[in-house]
Every structure is written in C-alpha cells, then in structure tokens.
Amino acid sequence: MGHFEKSFYHERDDTDILNLLKPRKGKVRAVLDTDTYNEIDDQFALVQMMLSTDRIKVEAIYPAPFSMNDRSDHPGKGMELSYDEILRCLERINISPEGLVHKGVTEYIGSKKESIDAPAVDDLINKANAGSKEDPLYVIAIGAISNVSSALLKAPQIKDKIVVVWLGGNALYWPHSYDYNLKQDVGGTQVLFDCGVPLVMVPCAGVTTHLTSTVPEVEKYIEPHGEIGKFLAMRFKEYSDDHKCWSKELWDMAAVAWVLDEKWTPTNLIPSPVLSDNMTWSVDQRRHPIKIVSMLNRDAILKDFVEKLEKFNS
User: Cα–Cα distance between 259 and 30 in angstroms, integer?
Assistant: First the structure.
C-alpha cells in the first residue's frame, strides 16, 4: 500500500491531460465501476453500456462499496450486494460474468489515503497498463471512487493511460457538495481530484437531476423488451410506493452517455477544484484541468437506450 504524496500532483503537463480528454472516434476500451444495488440507476447505465457494442468494448465491471442508506450499513456489504445485482443484470442480457466481473474493495480509502487491495484494483491496473496515451482505458465510475483511487495510489503511472469519468459531487455553483458518492469516501475523492488523472466530472445536483423518467414512460418503452425490460421496470417502480406525478432520476446513465456521445453531455474545462475535508470546494487556477459536464440532453440519452433495448430484443 502506498501513501499519497504531493509529488503525485504535477508529474505531467497539461498538454497530455488535454489530449487524453479529447473525444475519440470509433470503438473505445472501457470498464465500469458501479455500486449497482445502491439504487436503481446503475442498472440502466450498465445495460446501456453493455448494449453499446459498436462504441464500447467493455473489458470489466467492478462492484463498488456503498453504505449510509437502508440497503447497506457497511461498505463491504454494499459491494457484495452490488456484485449480486451485476450478475442479475448480465443474466438477463445473456452475458457471462466469467472473467468480466471482479469484486471491489470492502472499505473506503478515507483520510489515510492508502490503497486497499481487491481483485478489482489489480484488474484495473492490468487493464490500464495494457493501454496507452493514444488508446486509453475509459474508467466509468458511478459510485464511491474507492476502487479507482486505490488503483491510482497503488500504481500512479496508470494515470497516463486512462480517462476517469466519475459521476459524483454537485455542480460547483450548488450550495453544498454533500453528494452520496462523494461523501462516502472524501479521502478517495481528494485523491481523484489531486492526482492529475484525466477526469470528466459528471455532477449530480444541477446536472444529472434533469435525467429523469416516469412510470408511464418506463411501462411503454422499457418494460415490453424481454426479461431485462421487465427487470428494469420492476426496479424502477418498486423504488416508490406513490407513482402519482412521480419521476425518478437515472443519474448514472449520464456517465455512460458522455463516452457514447459527448454532444449529449456538453462539458467545460476548469482547473481541478480543491476538495476540503469538510466537503467544500475551492479554486486554484494553477491546478491541472479537468472537464465538467454542464448540462445534458435527457431525450437523446433515453432514446438511445430504448432503441438499443428494442434492437436487442428484436
């Protein structure tokens, strides 16, 4: 396990980061880091990613830890629940988990900022090392960032070969940053923003709060499409007992959407913000650049998803 060091911050110039953050045409390599059972949106994101075979070569899926809600009281339990939910999703789209799904860490990184061992951490390092600046690995992370930051701490050199797309935190103009993914592992999030890895931040409040659907929409366009459609509709509807004038965010789909087509999730370049231990942001213009999603095209993202479900079940 390696301690996070300040020398980790500025090991490459902005040119390298900016080149890695440029949109790429054709098929890209990617892994998904997901707290799949935490809510209901990860399932939609996972399925859209797996059905986007013309754009994404999915090389691995990593269950992420989660806690702090009524589904899990410990990060290790959350990781195991997510692992089981990944298998349920894959079964319904006829994809074997063998060699694809690797269990993640069972604790958060926290203030010690030390790498935690897990099969997902080692697999991510191996997948990243197989890439290059010209052919980076896209790490789509839609939960607490503990698996990814553990890999960055254990093997800092991988930041030259990956692009992290993390759904977490709120829009920087938001009054607070108490987002669920961020607050679970503040130390791990600090590693992510401080280390100089090419990063696309996909904020929750203020951005992905606009990515919603409703029961009538889900029943008409998703539920009819095979076992996976029924499963996703069930998960969506069981999330609330009251469906009258009710809509639900499908936040995590936005991170996959950025990889599919950046036009659906326009971004701005900003200096990587400084995250305090109290979960407040500050700005230092000297820091390395990151991309931050400023808005999204909700209709285009969901239409793409529905059309891929239709094609899969045709």
Answer: 9
Could you tell me the sign of the dihedral formed by the alpha carbons of 44, 50, 53, 56, in that order?
Answer: positive
Q: What is the CATH number of the domain that holds 174?
A: 3.90.245.10
User: What distance in Å separates the CA atoms of residue 172 and residue 179, rounded to the nearest whole number?
Assistant: 12
How many domains are there within the chain? 1
Measured CA to CA, the distance from residue 53 to residue 63 in angstroms comes to 21
Let me know if 304 is exposed, middle or buried by CB neighbors in 10 A (0-12, 13-18, 19+). Answer: buried
- pLDDT at residue 271, rounded to an integer: 97
Coil/strand/helix, residue 239: coil
Report the DSSP beta bridge partners of residue 267: 293
Q: Tens digits of per-residue pLDDT, 79-121?
A: 999 999 999 999 999 999 999 999 999 999 999 999 999 999 9
The b/e string for 283-296 (b: 16+ C-beta within 10 A; e otherwise) is eeeebbbbbbbeeb
Token pair 């806690």 is found at: 67
CA pseudo-torsion sign 20, 129, 120, 4: negative
Rounded distance between C-alpha atoms, residue 24 and residue 49, angstroms: 16
Structure token digits, residue 95: 């994809």
- What tokens were used for 206? 């203020």
Residue 1 lies in a domain: no
Range of the domain at 198: 6-312
Q: CA-CA distance, 222 to 207, in Å (whole number)? A: 23
CA distances from 118 to 76, 129, 146, 147, 151 (A): 11, 17, 11, 8, 9
Q: Which structure tokens are listed for 151?
A: 């890999």
* pTM tops 0.85: yes
